Amino acid sequence: MIRYFTSGESHGPALSAIVEGLPAGIPVTPEEINAQLARRQQGHGRGGRMKIETDKAEVLSGVRFGKTIGSPVTLVIRNRDWENWTTTMAQFEKPDAAPAKITIPRPGHADLAGRIKYGFDDIRPVIERSSARETAARVASGTLARLFLRSLGIEIGSYISAIGPAAETALHPQLASLLEKGAETVSAEADRSPVRMLDRQAETAALAAIDAAKEQGDTLGGIIEIFITGVPPGFGSYVQHDRRLDAALAAAIISIQAIKGVEIGTAFENARKPGSQVHDEFHLTAKDGAERKTNRAGGLEGSMSSGQTIHLRAAMKPISSLVTPLQSFDLETLQPTLSRFERSDTCAVPAAGVVAEAVVAPVIANALLEKLGGDHLEEIRERLERYRESILNTFRG
């Protein structure tokens, strides 16, 4: 099974990751990984750090002649800003001119709980590892699983449906036709927008809202729509809590910094309706077997994939580093004071959509491997084709 670990600090020398469990034979190029890293850096409302970094991943192991070889893949992303932080983030000897300790926690961040948990007398170590800069390593890692899925006809995409008060009023009318071409078509269309929105009226409102928030020293959150196409029914399981696909997908998304809510399909709207207006009815066809005219369940029933497009929605809170400070206190003096500012973004919702695409990829890949097994791509492809055929045979009598 695929698992990955990331390491590194926001202003340290580099971020790194080890991805274990990838089958052999997956085509990989640096351009594919770096294209996803570049997508993560885009979006109106990003801060000064994105002007410094141009993220590129170095592959140190696990790939030969452009294909995975079944062993762990090691990835490294250098931090260009490290040269400005060698004193603050010195790894061994403490410099004579050591930077002042940070003792004022920011509301909404990991600062206070992290300092207490790890026994620091300085919040800086908490800031460095809890930073969303870590998601660059997750995007690089998730891209490897994404390339595996793409080779099997499974695609992942996203767009932004709301930023602050700017929101589309309903799912975009072109969404269904885009999804028919695959979820990556949704992302390609969304990436044409500086805020990764499909609705042009909402885009205009979002751009204005971000500019206004920046001028006021404030930040904005938003809502991300994530889609996965090409997943056949029966991935995941209802038999144990830790094999439920919906739980694993929700956990992956909620693990992203600043994500505070996950919805599957139209779950919260469904909660206000009777069951007769919620559940997706079956319609049998000779060509495709069981079909649905609706997808209110978001492609997941009984904690398993239903064969429909998997639709997830993530709520991102506004970033907690504000130019206009909130009320806080000094941990050394225990006196009330205003919170401090750490260089940050006004809005990172468009980037979070790219991160969400990355973190769900290993989840789907593991559900596939749990169902089908296999150690190399061609073996797995053959098994998936047979599985798809067996599903159709169920409805052919």
Task: Describe the structure in your own words.
With 397 residues, the protein is of the alpha+beta class. It has one domain: Chorismate synthase AroC (Chorismate synthase, AroC fold, 4-Layer Sandwich). The chain is 34% helix and 19% strand. It contains twelve helices and 17 strands. The strands form six sheets. The chain has a five-stranded antiparallel sheet. It has a four-stranded antiparallel sheet with strand order 1-2-6-3. A two-stranded antiparallel ribbon has the order 4-5. A hairpin with a 6-residue loop joins strand 1 (3-7) and strand 2 (14-20). The chain is globular, with a radius of gyration of 22 Å.
What structural keywords apply?
12 helices; alpha+beta; Chorismate synthase, AroC fold; 17 strands; 5-stranded antiparallel β-sheet; 397 residues; 4-stranded antiparallel β-sheet; NADP
